[in-house]
Amino acid sequence: MESKILRLAPLPPRVNAVTVVDGNGDFNIYVNEHLSLEARRAAYDHELEHIRREHFFTDKPVEECEREAKNN
Ligand SMILES: [Zn+2]
Q1: Using 50, 70 and 90 to split pLDDT, how confident is the model at 1?
Q2: Are the C-beta atoms of residues 3 and 26 closer than 8 Å to each other?
Q3: How remote is the CA of residue 47 from the centroid of ligand 1, in Å?
Q4: 48: CA distance to ligand 1 center in Å?
Q5: From ligand 1's centre to the CA of 1, what distance in Å?
Q6: Which residues surround ligand 1, an ion (CB under 5 A)?
Q7: How far is the CA of 45 from the centre of ligand 1 (A)?
Q8: What is the pTM of this model?
Q9: 44 has pLDDT over 80
Q10: 55 Cα–ligand 1 center, Å
Q11: Where are the domains of the chain?
């Protein structure tokens, strides 16, 4: 419960990472395998910031969440 599961995935270009909350309440973080190691780390940190700020359980607009996650 509330685990973070990191996987590399062949995501489309321009998509750095995607996080999906599953039925167990776990955060499944998919990082684009086409990124460099450094970019993968940055994408993972970005998703962690969304999780930390509970953006997956808010009605806030996506744009505001993205702004907050970028300013960590
Ligand atoms: Zn984001």
Answers
A1: low
A2: yes
A3: 6
A4: 9
A5: 22
A6: 66, 69
A7: 10
A8: 0.91
A9: yes
A10: 9
A11: 4-70
Residue 30's Cβ-side half-sphere holds a number of Cα atoms within 13 Å equal to 10
How large is the C-alpha radius of gyration of the chain?
A: 12
Q: What is the DSSP string of the chain?
A: ---EEEEEE-PPTT--EEEEE-TTS-EEEEEETTS-HHHHHHHHHHHHHHHHTTGGG--S-HHHHHHHHHT-
So what's the pLDDT on residue 41?
A: 97
Of 23, 40, 20, 28, give the one whose Cα is nearest residue 3: 28
Please, which residues have CB within 8 angstroms of residue 20's CB and are 6 or more apart in sequence?
27, 28, 30
Positive or negative, the CA dihedral 49, 11, 64, 23 is: negative
CB contact at 8 A, 13 and 34:
yes
Cα(66) to centroid of ligand 1, in Å?
5
